[in-house]
Design a protein that fits this description.
The protein has about 350 residues and is an alpha+beta fold. It folds into 2 domains: about 60-70 and about 200-350, ZipA, C-terminal FtsZ-binding domain (Cell Division Protein Zipa, Chain: A), CATH 3.30.1400.10; about 85-195, no CATH class. It contains 10 helices and 15 strands. The chain has helices at about 35, 40-50, 95-105, 150-175, 185-200, 215-225, 260-265, 285-305, 315-335, 345-350; strands at about 10, 20, 85-95, 110-115, 120-125, 135-145, 175-180, 205-210, 215, 230, 235-240, 250, 270, 270-280, 305-310. The strands form 4 sheets. Strands 10-11-12-14-8-15 form a 6-stranded antiparallel beta sheet, covered by helices on one side. The protein has a 5-stranded antiparallel beta sheet with strand order 5-4-6-3-7. A two-stranded antiparallel ribbon has the order 1-2. Strand 4 and strand 5 form a beta hairpin.
């Protein structure tokens, strides 16, 4: 028997009797700190799920995936790849008092205003614009994916309206518009981004469904940890365990879709497993797919069940090959559009 968490508090009934509070609730969700009194450490919780029997550690079953260096975080400021930008500059710094007056009555639609000062960008709002006395330059930015319109003509008209607001602001400041994109070019970029996102903003999934009797959650935990998974972000199981470079995720096909160790300790059953990764943000999509397929085979060996694709169709070798070819084709098309999966450009767009 595995020992569950001890009670974390006591309550007094009206008759003076003391009732021990349960350490967790099977039908509940996340506990509050008030309920827990103090949070148990992660390792202790994971031991609840894994039990006391030894686990066969089989990391050699999974391939070593060589990853490119992690992309640096996107810098704070307007993003040229996914935005329509217009710059305003003057020979002298722009005082914030003049900027506040000039902005009155100007409709920026969904645009944001950025101010450049001391080598960095600052997002300007009515609350933050007064935080600095002057700005060396200004940039107005509109997310291309948020421009309303279903045709190039409509998108170009919206972009032209946005740029007119830029010229109005510049005239009021006595400054000049030093960079702007032609509305028709902005419309074309917006339409291209919409198509790219519609086609490739998807996850790649492989599933293992229980044959009738649910899989014991504890057995799923043990099989996952034997392959080098780790429990972490969003209460999911990730491979490999390092959260910064996890390539794919294991979720439950039931509700809830996340894993709580206490539920496994209580004997929770789950109707199936879903292995998945986000195609555009994955730095090695084909290698990740291959690793995911190996993990699926291991889970089937350990748990039984029926492998299927996302649509519920039987995942035999022919369909598995077709799924891999689909991933390869998507990678080729993304790279042809100048977007490498897992790159900064991909993270910015998707």
């Amino acid at each position: 028997m595995i020992e569950l968490l001890p009670a974390l508090g006591k309550t007094e009934k009206g008759d003076g009797a003391t009732v021990t509070e349960p350490a967790h609730r099977f039908e509940g969700d996340y506990w509050t700190r008030a309920e827990w009194r103090e949070m148990p450490d992660t390792a202790r919780r994971v031991r609840l799920a894994l039990g006391v029997e030894p686990i066969a550690v089989l990391p050699h079953l999974m391939p070593a995936v060589a990853l490119p260096p992690a992309p640096k975080p996107l810098p704070l400021g307007p993003q040229p790849g996914t935005c329509l930008l217009a710059d305003i500059a003057d020979t002298q710094p722009i005082p914030h008092e003049a900027l506040v007056l000039a902005l009155r009555g100007i409709d920026l639609m969904t645009g944001t205003l950025w101010g450049f000062q001391h080598g960095g960008w600052h997002l300007l709002t009515p609350e933050t614009v007064r935080q600095r006395p002057t700005y060396q330059a200004l940039t107005l930015a509109w997310e291309l994916l948020e421009l309303p319109g279903s045709s190039l003509a409509e998108l170009a008209a919206v972009a032209a309206h946005a740029l007119r607001a830029t010229h109005t602001l510049a005239e009021r400041l006595g400054a000049a518009v030093t960079r702007e994109e032609a509305p028709v070019e902005a419309a074309r970029r917006a339409a291209s981004l919409v198509l790219l996102k519609a086609r490739f903003a998807r996850s790649v999934e492989l599933r293992l469904l229980a044959p009738g009797t649910p899989f014991p959650s504890r057995r799923a935990w043990r099989a996952a940890y034997g392959l080098g998974f780790g429990w972490g972000h969003l209460d999911l199981l990730h491979w490999p365990a390092a959260p910064q470079r996890a390539l794919f995720t294991l979720t439950s096909a039931g509700k809830p879709s996340y894993f709580l160790p206490e539920r496994a300790a209580e004997g929770e059953g789950i109707p199936g497993l879903i292995l998945s990764f986000e195609l555009p943000s994955c730095p090695a999509p084909l290698e990740t797919f291959d690793a995911m397929a190996l993990a699926l085979a291991h889970f089937r060996e350990q748990l039984g069940g029926h492998p299927t694709d996302e649509g519920g169709r039987e995942l035999d070798l022919e369909r598995l090959d077709a799924e891999r070819e689909s991933v390869a084709a998507a990678v080729t098309q993304l790279e042809a559009a100048g977007i490498t999966p897992g790159s900064r450009e991909a993270l910015e767009l998707f």
